[in-house]
Design goal:
- The complex is a heterodimer.
- Chain A has eight helices and twelve strands.
- Chain A is of the alpha+beta class.
- Chain A folds into three domains: about 90 residues; about 110 residues, Cupredoxins -  blue copper proteins (Immunoglobulin-like, Sandwich), CATH 2.60.40.420; about 100 residues, Cytochrome Bc1 Complex, Chain D, domain 2 (Orthogonal Bundle).
- In chain A, the strands form four sheets. In chain A, strands 3-2-1-5-8 form a five-stranded mixed sheet, with no helix packed on it.
- Chain B is an all-alpha fold.
- Chain B is built from 23 helices and two strands.
- A two-stranded antiparallel sheet of chain B has the order 1-2.
- In chain B, helix 13 crosses helix 20.
- The longest helix of chain B has about 35 residues.
- The chains are: A alpha+beta, B mainly alpha.
- At the A-B interface, helix 2, helix 3 and strand 7 of A face helix 6, helix 13, helix 14, helix 15 and helix 16 of B.
Chain lengths: ~350, ~675
């Protein structure tokens, strides 16, 4: 059997590969993959992903075109029983396509390491914010500003932030991820972790928990507000403890929404919830699982939040997380009690 | 009914009896010690008002008896293995009774009977693995369809997941289904790998059976109680940890997690025992003249896979066992915290002083190499079929063979890339990024060598070849989307999102599902003696391949936009509604196409025309003997005299089955 010449085929396939590669790379570049970035750290992530998409586009075109071209050009004709040309390999080619990818991944590793340094490195004049995760929510503290635990993460724009993060000791692993910030980090019970961000775009965002943490995982999130430095100062001033009952109840209602209470406790009076309803709770008798009764006063509700298994209402499972005592300040629990008082 | 006399039924019955014995054993000891029968005082010890016993069990009520449940679960596996009869010979050896190897079905049993009990023929065991794999695949796929319905639109749809407050649904069901889909699929893949290596390796190297036939039977059957426990776990409270089972969540999860642990433990034991068999068989039982570099390329892949399975599987068994023990004995391996002295001094159960991240290291030390266990055999199938359907030698045989070994080796050094954001020491990120990216090199060698094999061939697009090419295209997507996860910088954004889901589904489909289906079609004439319906096969391919592309790429796009893994709901503001709907529809098309394949193969195995002896004109050893393979595969010892893939080299032979050769030895 005479060997065929492949010169013509190689030229055609190279041309198609080039055209397809250009189309794929341009196409991949035009897809809106991610929401607009909102931190300085996002730059190194987006830049590296851009480089990787070019490499992906080229290699995809290379392999797919080569394969599909072979299938078309070298397909078996009807009734054809002959074999293909007998060549068993080519050591030079094999070495080439071992060494070239090796160089490519080494370059990628260097780029990755440099990008990592940019995305996680320490910055000048950082402000520390404490992030505590629990099942299922987040609280944020500003030790340098004397703000203990707020359900919403307020950040001044263009201010380098270091997040000191932890999950409550008795709790499970959670994760801190704002898609627009591009960086994420797990929060682990007993193992402190850190994340650095410099938000550079004013706006509202959401922290999502990105580590499976049980039944409430889907809805575990918190609001992030990136604000101008003057708005931030105004917000800090507002954070002084409130004593006005109406104001306290309003803050309590916000806490209830952000801390996951509403997942189990409704305020509509429907008795079918996972936990007891709060409508008409305050001041009334409740039957407990041990057969006794108790009056739902301030002290009872406070204890039920801090130590939920101490007094379980009859007919309900003892499944409320015991972490709220660690997560909420006494002040915040008072707000929630004030809110429950308003639910006649 | 003869079916009730099968080993399978006996195994289940004896297993249930042993389950009861195990349960009572713990309870009797508790009561004898003056302890209450119920273990966890925080859980109702029986159905509460408005619940019947079944509802109580499904809601996880058996948690009240967790230690008894755990012991009972382990006893169930032991009882099953005794009942199925796979240990009978060993027990006779213990008593000094000789048991000569029996070949073929027992006298008077119908042909199908041996497939439902302990049988030592690797051809029977291979099919047992294969059928079980397909059953588990369909079961786990159905679970995925349920939650894909939920995910087709934003907000909660299904009452099962709590969308309707009047029905007692909860997201615990969602988490359970996601977790069960993952782990049962992994079980299915491991069984599929077992099917291919058990059926093919002895045939391909000219051996009449595996090195240890009884161990082979044991290794298959222990999967069955393992899988039954995995399925049971769904219905006794489920588990909300995903297939990864990270503590502390798994230490607090519903009781189902314990049967998940036990099930995985014994399926893992199957991997270890099965791989031992493959390694010994490959090393010691090859036909005369078959040097290592004259083995069919699939045997290289199966051999590399077995090396990983033998050395890594212990780690997942260990890590799950540690959480299992932590839960019932209060050993705080993975729980942090140092309580004050009053707690330690009191007799209160204290679980603390451990480290949650330690688990992840142990877990991924197996579970990353496990990925190569899933894909290396599939890549071996691709390399095996390409020369046959291109009518050309495999391009760079030695490079492909050694690239499997290289992937197996490097695969041991990359586990922590699953933990870039876990809170492990941050300086570990860069070395693990480098080792991870290195995997691309031997993988690239395979891709380019495949292209070299296709180039200049006479490509015949029969169904197995279509699936082989489909596998290359899908595995290409899986491979190329890996580096953004491997480089830490981009992983900070992509970790644990649907991008990862898209990536590993492409890897699993390209590396296992497509090649496995190619193998089923390709060797169907070998094990059934009949030819499948080609048209239905092509339709299966034409439906599944584009549907898979849509599914995988859709998942990735949803992930980069903000969709997290393992969530039941997503933000409509991300603009991924259409993508999610497309992914769900694609999932149903894939499921339908798989159903077509199952119907095709079932129907063809009975009604289709007889296959010709070597329908693919393959040079492989296994195609030189009749189909279906006779009880004694090679009545005369084959002798290998040439290279396996010398297509297009006139006058070359791979193997001689000449009876004349036997006389001279």
């Amino acid at each position: 059997m005479e060997k065929r010449s492949y010169g013509k085929h190689f030229i055609i396939v190279a041309v198609i590969i080039l055209i397809t590669a250009v189309i794929t790379i341009v196409g991949l570049g035009r897809v809106r993959w991610m929401a607009a970035p909102a931190t300085t750290q996002a730059h190194s992530v987006d830049a590296l992903l851009g480089i990787e998409l070019v490499a992906i586009g080229f290699l995809f075109a290379l392999v797919m075109v080569f394969m599909l071209y072979s299938v078309v050009a070298f397909r078996r004709r009807n009734g054809e029983e002959t074999d293909g040309d007998h060549f068993e390999g080519n050591t030079k080619l094999e070495i080439t396509w071992t060494v070239l990818p090796l160089i490519t991944v080494l370059i990628l590793a260097v780029l990755g390491a440099r990008g990592l340094a940019q995305a996680t490195g320490a910055q000048a004049d950082e402000v520390a914010v404490r992030v505590t995760a629990f099942s299922w929510g987040f609280t944020f503290g500003y030790p340098e500003l004397g703000i203990d635990a707020t359900p919403v993460l307020y950040l001044p724009v263009d201010q380098p932030i270091v997040l000191d993060m932890n999950s409550v000791d008795t709790d499970v692993i959670h994760d801190f991820w704002v898609p627009e910030f591009r960086v994420k980090q797990d929060l682990v019970p007993g193992v402190p972790t850190q994340l650095r961000i410099t938000p550079n775009k004013i706006g509202s965002y959401k922290v999502l928990c990105d580590e499976l943490c049980g039944t409430g995982h889907t809805n575990m999130q918190a609001r992030v507000e990136v604000v101008s430095s003057s708005d931030f100062d105004a917000w800090v001033a507002e954070q002084q403890p409130s004593t006005d009952p109406a104001e306290m109840a309003k803050l309590g209602e916000e806490l209830v929404a952000s801390q996951g209470c509403a997942a189990c406790h409704n305020v509509t009076g429907d008795p079918g919830g996972i936990g007891p309803t709060w409508k008409g709770l305050f001041g009334h008798e409740v039957e407990l699982a041990d057969g006794t009764t108790a009056t739902a006063d301030e002290a009872y509700i406070h204890e039920s939040i801090v130590d939920p298994l101490a007094q379980v209402v009859t007919g309900y499972q003892p499944i409320m997380p015991a972490s709220y005592g660690d997560v909420l300040t006494d002040q915040q629990i008072d707000y929630i009690v004030e809110y429950i008082k308003t639910l006649h | 009914m003869r079916f009730f006399k099968t080993g399978l039924v006996k195994g289940i019955l004896v297993g249930l009896l042993w389950w009861l014995i195990g349960f009572m054993l713990v309870e009797v000891i508790r009561v004898a010690m003056g302890l209450p029968a119920a273990w966890d005082p925080n859980v109702p010890a029986g159905p509460v008002a408005g619940q019947n016993a079944l509802q109580w069990i499904v809601a996880g009520g058996l948690a009240a008896y967790e230690p008894a449940m755990v012991v009972a679960g382990i006893f169930f596996v032991i009882g099953f293995m005794l009942g199925v009869g796979t240990m009978s010979d060993w027990l006779k050896w213990v008593r000094g009774i000789d048991t000569p190897m029996h070949h073929g079905p027992k006298e008077g049993d119908p042909g199908w009977f041996r497939y439902f009990g302990a049988d030592y023929s690797h051809k029977v065991i291979g099919l047992q693995y294969g059928v079980t794999a397909v059953i588990l695949l369909m079961f786990a796929g159905t679970l995925a369809l349920i939650f894909r319905v939920e995910l087709a639109n934003p907000e909660l749809q299904l009452s099962l997941f709590g969308a309707n407050p009047e029905v007692q649904g909860t997201l615990n069901w969602f988490n359970t289904l996601v977790s069960a889909h993952g782990m049962i699929m992994i079980g299915s893949i491991l069984l599929g790998v077992g099917a291919m290596s058990n059926y093919l390796v002895p045939l391909m190297i000219g051996a009449n059976d595996m090195a240890f036939p009884r161990l082979n039977s044991f290794a298959f059957w222990i999967n069955v109680p393992g899988a039954l426990l995995l399925v049971t776990a769904i219905f006794i409270g489920g588990w909300n940890t995903g297939w990864t089972g990270y503590p502390p969540l798994s230490a607090q999860a519903p009781i189902g997690v314990q049967y998940f642990f036990i099930g995985v433990f014994f399926i893992g034991m199957s991997s270890i025992l099965g791989s031992l068999n493959i390694i010994v068989t490959t090393l010691t039982m090859r036909a005369r003249g078959m040097t290592m570099f004259r083995m069919p390329i699939f045997v290289w892949a199966a051999f590399s896979t077995a090396l990983i399975q033998l050395t890594a599987t212990q780690l997942i068994g260990l890590s799950f066992l540690m959480v299992l023990i932590q839960r019932i004995l209060g050993l705080g391996f993975f729980n942090p915290g140092f309580p004050d002295i009053t707690v330690i001094a009191s007799s209160q159960l204290w679980e603390g002083g451990g480290n949650p991240i330690l688990f992840q290291h142990l877990f991924w030390f197996y579970s990353h190499p496990a990925v190569y266990v899933f894909i290396l055999p599939g890549l071996g199938i691709i390399s095996e079929l390409l020369p046959v359907f291109s009518r050309k030698p495999l391009f760079g045989y030695k490079w492909i063979a050694l690239s499997s070994m290289a992937i197996a080796l490097v695969g041991f050094l990359v586990w922590a890339h699953h933990m870039f954001v876990s809170g492990m020491n941050t300086y570990l990120r860069v070395p693990f990024m480098l080792s991870t990216l290195l995997v691309a090199v031997p993988t690239g060698v395979k891709f380019f060598s495949w292209l070299g094999t296709l180039w200049g061939g006479r490509i015949d697009l029969k169904t197995p070849m279509l699936f082989t090419l489909g596998a290359i295209s899908v595995f290409l997507i899986g491979g190329l989307t890996g580096p953004p996860l491997g480089t830490v910088t981009t992983d900070l954004q992509l970790h644990d999102t649907y991008y990862v889901v898209g990536h590993f589904h492409a890897t699993m489909f390209g590396g296992f599902v497509f090649p496995f289906f190619a193998a089923l079609y390709y060797w169907f004439p070998k094990f059934s003696g009949r030819q499948y319906n080609e048209r239905l096969g092509v339709i299966h391919f034409a439906l599944m391949t584009p549907a898979f592309w849509v599914m995988s790429l859709g998942q990735m796009l949803a992930g980069t936009r903000g969709m997290r893994r393992r969530v039941a709901d997503y933000d409509p503001a991300w603009g991924i509604d259409g993508v999610q709907l497309a992914v769900s529809i694609a999932a149903f098309i894939i499921a339908f196409s798989v159903l077509l394949m199952v119907i095709n193969l079932l129907w063809s195995s009975r009604r289709a025309p007889r296959a010709v002896a070597n329908p693919w004109r393959s040079r492989g050893l296994e195609w030189q003997i009749p189909s279906p393979v006779p009880e004694l595969s090679y009545a005369t010892a084959p002798v290998v005299v040439g290279e396996p893939y010398d297509y297009g080299l006139p006058g070359s032979t791979y193997v001689q089955l000449a009876p004349a050769m036997t006389g001279g030895d």
